[in-house]
Amino acid sequence: xxxFVIQGRVPLKGKLRIPGAKNSxxxxxxxxxxxxxxxxxxxVPHLMDVVTMQQVLEGLGIKVVRKDTxxxxxxxxxxxxxxxxxxxxxxxxxxxxxxxLLARYGKAEICLPGGCCIGRRPVNLHxxxxxxxxxxxxxxxxxxxxxxxxxxxxxxHLDLPSVGATENLMLSACLSEGETVIKNxxxxxxxxxxxxxxxxxxxxxxGEGTSTIRIGGVKKLRSTHHSIIPDRIAAGTLLMAIxxxxxxxxxxxxxxxxxxxxxxxxxxxxxxxxxxxDKVRIKGGDYLRSVRIxxxxxxxxxxxxxxxxxxxxxxxxxxxxxTETIFENRFTHTPELQxxxxxxxxxxARVVVEEMPSLFGNLVRAxxxxxxxxxxxxxxxxxxxxxxxxxxxxDRGYEELEGNLSQLGAKMVRIKE
Length: 417
Ligand code: UD1
Description:
By secondary structure, the protein is an alpha/beta fold. The protein contains 14 helices and 26 strands. α1 (about 20-30) packs parallel to α7 (about 190-200) and α5 runs parallel beside α6.
């Protein structure tokens, strides 16, 4: 068992480089299934979720070799069509192998991802879309069994702009016959990165970054190489860490155009932000101002930064209101923040946070990636020592968090027991 131990109240200073995006790396790894030969992905972060996806691919007979931040994926020969329970349970994004397996091989068997601690997270939109493209799908004893004699392009209107469903359907439609038009598609940068990668593979895709994505089916795709976009959620988390510590630091290798609403909200709270090409300099103010946040699909405020900004709100002057509209239960960090002295109350899908002059170190427990990151941020600002348990959740989404924060001067260590 590992824990983070943080001595709070050290202003962060210096500079850091942002790694590649987890949520872009995972679908691109799945896209490699679509073509024979070697795919090279550059700027791939070192994270547990990437390791899990590597295991999913290896389970299908695909060879994956990591060299530093490059993954070489050879999908020439597949020996299986099944993503098993143990891996899908660890990481729901494993569902993204469903579309590519069907598109290239006509069959797939995948454990049905259940709910997780942040919500129910159904996959109905993935399955309905795949059925429209011509997949026969049965859900039996917790497994999705799917096959197709070949996908045929179709109009698909998503009820919600789901990131994963948009990606699964793009992955499927590019090897279909005819045109697919996905309406109410996700506009997220990770979807755009996937479209660019698929185009390099020979796919015909237009409209990524808007709500309507058109995909003209082709017969074959070729393997290629691609550098993953910087992680906007890791960048947002680190910006908030600097602000909550009242520090001043520079993040390099970012995509400021992916962080618009995050900059807006941090400026509203009193942070000073300067952008110079891929560099962002941020300075925490002497005090924080309260904020109103509502999570929304991109380009709205990301649900993946909601817990972290809640930690900032705990120390802000005035009353903050933070509303979660994407997941039903993304407030598991709230009782832990209360243990640290936060005046925070959950009212249905929102939390109301009252001003507190300080947080206090305590023993707390992470229960999901971003909720865990929120506790790290609270620990950086708290008086005394914060100990965070169950940090394997945080490791799923953050590369070397304690190393990066220590590089900025934080007193944070990982203790192995
Ligand atoms: C992705 C991100 C995750 C982020 C989320 C929302 C990856 C690997 N993960 O997850 O970090 O928090 O986007 O930005 O990229 N929904 C349905 N039916 C479906 C699919 C989704 O009802 O078939 C609902 C979900 O329960 C949720 C909402 O749609 O309430 C958004 O989910 P979605 O955008 O699909 O999230 P993921 O792709 O799972």
